Amino acid sequence: MAKKTDIINEYEAAAVALRHLYSVCSAIPI
Fold this sequence. Notes:
Elements: H1 4-27
């Protein structure tokens, strides 16, 4: 079973990746 800190780190890494992906997508006109 994963430690609580590991779960938090995974969530934060996913949130950062999503924000980066969103900023890249919004910067590229489709």
